[in-house]
Amino acid sequence: MSTNEHQFLLKALEEGLRLDGRKPMQMRPLNIEVGPDYGQMLVTLGDAKVVVRISSEIVTPYEDRPFEGIFQVSSELDGMGHPSFNEASHRQEEEVMLSRLIEKAIRRSNALDLESLCIIAGQKCWSVRADVHIIDYDGNMTDIVCIGVIAGLLHFKKPDISIRNGTVILHDMSEREPVPLSVLHIPICVTFQIYSSGSMEDNVKGDGREFVIVDATLKEEALTQGTITLTLNSNKELCQMSKSGGINLEVDEILSLTNEAQIIVDDFTKYIKDTIKKDEELRVNPLQKELQVVNSRE
Amino acid sequence: MTESLIVPGDRLDIKSENIILGPGFYVDPKTDEILPTNAGILEVSQKQNKTVYVIDSKSKTYIPKTNDFVIGIITGTFGELYKVGLSEFTQAAQMSVYAFPNASKKNRPHLKVGDVIYARVLSAERDIEVELECIDPTTGKEGGFGQLEDGYLFTVNLAYARYLLFNENAEILTELVKKCKFELAVGCNGRIWIKSETVKTTITCVKIIEESQNWSKQDIPKKLKEVWAAFN
Amino acid sequence: MVLPEYQTSLLNKVDGSSTISIGEVKVICSVTGPIEAKPRQELPTQCAIEVNIRPEVGVGSTREKNMEDKLRVVLNGTINKFQYPRQLIQVHLHIISKSQATENNLKDLHACINGAYLALIDANISLLSSFLSTYAVINDDRLIFNPTSEQIQSSISHHLVCFDIKSGRADELLFVDSVGEFTEGELMTVLDQSIEEIESMNKIVRKTITEKVSRDYIWKY
């Protein structure tokens, strides 16, 4: 990025202005488009887009965890998201950061009840896999990937099973209603970028004036001096917090950011639930879907 | 002037005499057949007894052509050469430190990595690096080229950038001038540099010019008003 | 006939993109180029073409590698490579939902070829000709274009045919891939009928491109 852009953006942020006209604490519009299969969706946050696909299969559980199923998240960046990700070095760094945060936010906060995935202890369990492909990269990947994974898990249904004489019988979706996953809570990440008007020295001393924005775009992210990701759910529980970069934040600042994040989390949780509910209704009542298609054509 | 949609592989009835072929064509070296290679609008015009054929098509990645005006970002300095990026992910062009008016060993510009310059493509040969200069060849003077200080840099698609560059009276600019004062430089490589009095005005202008790529001419006054109101 | 749905320019960071859905198969395609090639890819007189296909679940396997190779054959014959010496053109495809028939990957490949064509047009890459493909099966001595999964599963032979298109006519055969048992005569019938199929498909695709170009040039009028 050119020096001109860099300086201009910092000056604008200092004045509380953003290039897309947003306020510092305003998220980009979130949109979730549900695909024809369970657990398949396209999540859009402003210009950023990810494709989510949840899949499941029956496997043998890990030896040290015989009563638990397996849950894996695989998030991928490549040249489709942004041509700079053709360079493996650039990609790896981002991918590692992303997968660690998602691991902390969703897996370790026990959003998915792993014990419910157990079929026969020590022998058979469900393995659930979330594939997230970032097809359009425009900053703030953590938040959008997190929303994608959790919305995918909420929407996904695995085929029903029954056990007869120790063998597992898999029922086709047309034969028996598929079963949703047991999602215990809905953690949502909110990432803030922190900038400082002062020099590096001022930052260490805590003299510089800080300004914080939420949901940074790619350009805004490029000049960040510090990042903080808060993961909360609608029960007002803090699931995870991670901060990187060299700017000090006072405790009361973090608390006020948590309050900001809570508003966003509540808003998004409602949107995700509504979207999935609406899709569910359409699946139950296909006639309504046909009517909707007619409406959208008009 | 006649216009129509062309896609690659369409056969055109073009005689290979008395013509000038613009971008979007390829002459098959074996058969001498003229093939359109890009999807876009065919524009036919007359110039000095010759028929000019051009396929106007939108693209994002810039391919340098001699005499194009471009906005570059300095990506490195090597002795007496500057490396200048013209678009992302493409090979950098080069520019001599003496490619400025009145530059000499004692009096040379001091550009740093990240600085923005307005330059002319001096040569763009197939197999060697693209070379730039900051001199107006007709006068030997600065002629508007050189470093662009402050302001903001953004990109539009190449076809739109060319349109803005060659049409000073483009509606979007004449309408925008009524709203505020600004300085503008447009490069053929799709980059636009803009500077105005306040940060807010600059942001609004950037948004308006970016969005105007998707506006039809008659919508300009209405849409411009909408965006202006939303940002101020 | 199941009409494929086409869309272009949905991604912002790449030069060209498209989505295509043919029956249950949905593919997103992006093209970036001409960009600087890595030293190992660089060719002195022409551009290198990189093709990446990502499956709906997990990472690419031999199934995708096989499709990448076939798609590269088609692209090698149609991209005007000499226009971009030492450069790289990158084609990324993501199969969002794959064919339910697991016998072969031809239906997916069919979507990939047509998706790649639209994305290349969107990225304004110089092409020697247009190209489109069709997928047909022979089922009970009947030739079926754009078959459903049930039809694919009960068919004896499968054919993917790709023609280049000059002035709206299917001109030269670029690529043909057949699986199953069939006679020479049957293959010839497939080729003959594919020409008609491709030409009628081309009319729809051309309409998509016209719409795209008029969207691109909306500021001009």
UniProtKB/TrEMBL annotation, chain A:
<dbReference type="InterPro" id="IPR001247">
    <property type="entry name" value="ExoRNase_PH_dom1"/>
</dbReference>
<dbReference type="InterPro" id="IPR020568">
    <property type="entry name" value="Ribosomal_Su5_D2-typ_SF"/>
</dbReference>
<keyword id="KW-0963">Cytoplasm</keyword>
<dbReference type="GO" id="GO:0000467">
    <property type="term" value="P:exonucleolytic trimming to generate mature 3'-end of 5.8S rRNA from tricistronic rRNA transcript (SSU-rRNA, 5.8S rRNA, LSU-rRNA)"/>
</dbReference>
<comment type="similarity">
    <text>Belongs to the RNase PH family.</text>
</comment>
<dbReference type="GO" id="GO:0071038">
    <property type="term" value="P:TRAMP-dependent tRNA surveillance pathway"/>
</dbReference>
<keyword id="KW-0694">RNA-binding</keyword>
<feature type="domain" description="Exoribonuclease phosphorolytic">
    <location>
        <begin position="186"/>
        <end position="257"/>
    </location>
</feature>
<feature type="domain" description="Exoribonuclease phosphorolytic">
    <location>
        <begin position="26"/>
        <end position="159"/>
    </location>
</feature>
<dbReference type="GO" id="GO:0000177">
    <property type="term" value="C:cytoplasmic exosome (RNase complex)"/>
</dbReference>
<dbReference type="Pfam" id="PF03725">
    <property type="entry name" value="RNase_PH_C"/>
</dbReference>
<dbReference type="Pfam" id="PF01138">
    <property type="entry name" value="RNase_PH"/>
</dbReference>
<dbReference type="GO" id="GO:0034473">
    <property type="term" value="P:U1 snRNA 3'-end processing"/>
</dbReference>
<dbReference type="InterPro" id="IPR027408">
    <property type="entry name" value="PNPase/RNase_PH_dom_sf"/>
</dbReference>
<dbReference type="InterPro" id="IPR033100">
    <property type="entry name" value="Rrp45"/>
</dbReference>
TrEMBL record, chain B:
<keyword id="KW-0963">Cytoplasm</keyword>
<dbReference type="GO" id="GO:0030145">
    <property type="term" value="F:manganese ion binding"/>
</dbReference>
<dbReference type="InterPro" id="IPR036612">
    <property type="entry name" value="KH_dom_type_1_sf"/>
</dbReference>
<dbReference type="GO" id="GO:0071051">
    <property type="term" value="P:poly(A)-dependent snoRNA 3'-end processing"/>
</dbReference>
<dbReference type="GO" id="GO:0003723">
    <property type="term" value="F:RNA binding"/>
</dbReference>
<dbReference type="GO" id="GO:0000467">
    <property type="term" value="P:exonucleolytic trimming to generate mature 3'-end of 5.8S rRNA from tricistronic rRNA transcript (SSU-rRNA, 5.8S rRNA, LSU-rRNA)"/>
</dbReference>
<comment type="similarity">
    <text>Belongs to the RRP40 family.</text>
</comment>
<dbReference type="GO" id="GO:0071034">
    <property type="term" value="P:CUT catabolic process"/>
</dbReference>
<keyword id="KW-0271">Exosome</keyword>
<dbReference type="InterPro" id="IPR004088">
    <property type="entry name" value="KH_dom_type_1"/>
</dbReference>
<keyword id="KW-0698">rRNA processing</keyword>
<keyword id="KW-0539">Nucleus</keyword>
<keyword id="KW-0694">RNA-binding</keyword>
<dbReference type="GO" id="GO:0071038">
    <property type="term" value="P:TRAMP-dependent tRNA surveillance pathway"/>
</dbReference>
<feature type="domain" description="Exosome complex exonuclease Rrp40 N-terminal">
    <location>
        <begin position="19"/>
        <end position="60"/>
    </location>
</feature>
TrEMBL record, chain C:
<keyword id="KW-0271">Exosome</keyword>
<dbReference type="GO" id="GO:0003723">
    <property type="term" value="F:RNA binding"/>
</dbReference>
<keyword id="KW-0539">Nucleus</keyword>
<comment type="similarity">
    <text>Belongs to the RNase PH family.</text>
</comment>
<dbReference type="GO" id="GO:0071051">
    <property type="term" value="P:poly(A)-dependent snoRNA 3'-end processing"/>
</dbReference>
<dbReference type="InterPro" id="IPR027408">
    <property type="entry name" value="PNPase/RNase_PH_dom_sf"/>
</dbReference>
<dbReference type="InterPro" id="IPR001247">
    <property type="entry name" value="ExoRNase_PH_dom1"/>
</dbReference>
<dbReference type="GO" id="GO:0000176">
    <property type="term" value="C:nuclear exosome (RNase complex)"/>
</dbReference>
<dbReference type="GO" id="GO:0034475">
    <property type="term" value="P:U4 snRNA 3'-end processing"/>
</dbReference>
<dbReference type="GO" id="GO:0071028">
    <property type="term" value="P:nuclear mRNA surveillance"/>
</dbReference>
<keyword id="KW-0698">rRNA processing</keyword>
<dbReference type="InterPro" id="IPR050080">
    <property type="entry name" value="RNase_PH"/>
</dbReference>
<dbReference type="GO" id="GO:0000177">
    <property type="term" value="C:cytoplasmic exosome (RNase complex)"/>
</dbReference>
<dbReference type="GO" id="GO:0000467">
    <property type="term" value="P:exonucleolytic trimming to generate mature 3'-end of 5.8S rRNA from tricistronic rRNA transcript (SSU-rRNA, 5.8S rRNA, LSU-rRNA)"/>
</dbReference>
<feature type="domain" description="Exoribonuclease phosphorolytic">
    <location>
        <begin position="6"/>
        <end position="125"/>
    </location>
</feature>
